[in-house]
Design a protein that fits this description.
It is a single chain. By secondary structure, the chain is α/β, with parallel strands linked by helices. The chain folds into two domains: about 220 residues, Spore Coat Polysaccharide Biosynthesis Protein SpsA, Chain A (Alpha-Beta Complex); about 70 residues. Helix content is about 50%, strand content about 15%. It has ten helices and eight strands. Helix 2 links the parallel strand 2 and strand 3. Bound molecules: uridine-5'-diphosphate (UDP) and magnesium ion. Uridine-5'-diphosphate binds next to strand 1 and helix 3.
Length: about 300
């Protein structure tokens, strides 16, 4: 019998977990030809998420959990899940019920048809502010434009991955993780299924604008080195204009003499070039910082406790 793992990273999700578990059980009880593992990764929650998970595990032996020593962020928590999931396929979903378990049967059907990566695609983005929608949209356009590998918009972490994909993802141990880019990087046969995003039922989204902004920057810098190239181009263009302007100034000085004026031009040009230089150094710094973090080669997450399925 094939085993399917459902992987749920949880950070302060005590309120949602019981409901989520009920929903999952309702759906998987209709799928009798599989063995199930429900793997919760507690990402250093500050509330009693861990107690709730332990409580659920007492009632349902299919539940296993990984308890991380502190909050490592969703991306790292997911890697902890990939490392411990036992299934022939792994379904990743959020704990807040924004990812409806009702889509699971359709995902499995596609998997059985031979697809390795069945991603769930949002038809709408649910209740989100206008600004957030606009920002997300232009962000994806930027990301898409700056690299050769496709990043799919409106596709999140809600997906079913074959064992092959999981093994591939486990090989990527970098600490600055951008898993959305990794799904695309590993390739394999992909297909989407559509779903309607629900609004977060309980609790609050931990993704503030600041966190999203950081994730976005992380996304670009870990996904592509295009900004470094942009920096080169900006340098080239500015040098070209500077050179042309120099010729112009020289010729003017020779032909008409030089009445030493042009303080405003001088100031704006210096400020402009200074700005460009700082920006470029900043871009280089972003990548340098990444190299710094990666060469330390620290573990991506640290485990306090792992409880797997005992009857194996
Ligand atoms: N999450 C996590 N670690 C974190 C932040 C979030 O494991 O540091 C989990 C969270 O419990 C949820 C999922 O990641 O299951 C998505 O988080 P959230 O709903 O806050 O994000 P959003 O849906 O707003 O993108
Ligand atoms: Mg959410």
């Amino acid at each position: 019998m094939k085993t399917i793992s459902i992987l749920v990273p949880c950070y302060n999700e005590a309120q949602s977990l019981e409901l989520l578990h009920k929903e999952i059980v309702r759906v998987i009880s209709t799928l009798e030809n599989y063995k199930w593992e429900i793997l919760f990764v507690n990402d250093g929650s500050r509330d009693n998420t861990m107690e709730v998970i332990k409580g659920l595990r007492e009632k349902d032996s299919r539940i296993s959990y990984v308890d991380l020593s502190r909050n490592f962020g969703k991306e790292n928590a997911m890697l902890a899940g990939f490392d411990h999931a036992k299934g022939d396929a792994v379904i990743i979903m959020d704990a807040d019920l924004q990812h409806p378990p009702a889509v699971i049967p359709e995902m499995i059907q596609k998997w059985e048809e031979g697809y390795d990566d069945v991603y769930a695609q949002r038809k709408t983005r649910g209740k989100e502010s206008w600004l957030r929608k606009k920002l997300t949209k232009s962000y994806y356009r930027l990301l898409q434009g700056s690299s050769r590998v496709d990043v799919l918009p409106n596709v999140g972490d809600f997906r079913l991955l074959d064992r092959k994909c999981i093994d591939a993802l486990c090989q990527m141990r970098e600490s600055g993780r951008y898993t959305k880019g990794m799904y695309c990087f590993i390739g394999f046969k992909k297909i989407g299924v559509e779903f309607e995003t629900q609004d977060r039922v309980l609790g609050e989204s931990s993704m503030s604008y600041k966190k999203l902004m950081n994730l976005a920057l992380e996304g670009i810098t870990s996904y592509t080195t295009a900004p470094l190239r942009w920096a080169t181009f900006i340098g080239l263009i500015v040098s070209f204009f500077a050179f042309a302007y120099m010729i112009f100034v020289l010729v003017k000085a020779f032909l008409y003499g030089d009445p030493v004026a042009g303080y405003p031009t001088l100031l704006t040009v210096i400020l402009f070039i200074g700005g460009v230089q700082l920006l470029t150094i900043g871009i280089i710094g972003e990548y340098l910082a990444k190299v710094f973090v990666e060469v330390k080669n620290r573990p991506v997450y640290i485990i306090r406790e792992y409880k797997g399925n005992e009857d194996e």
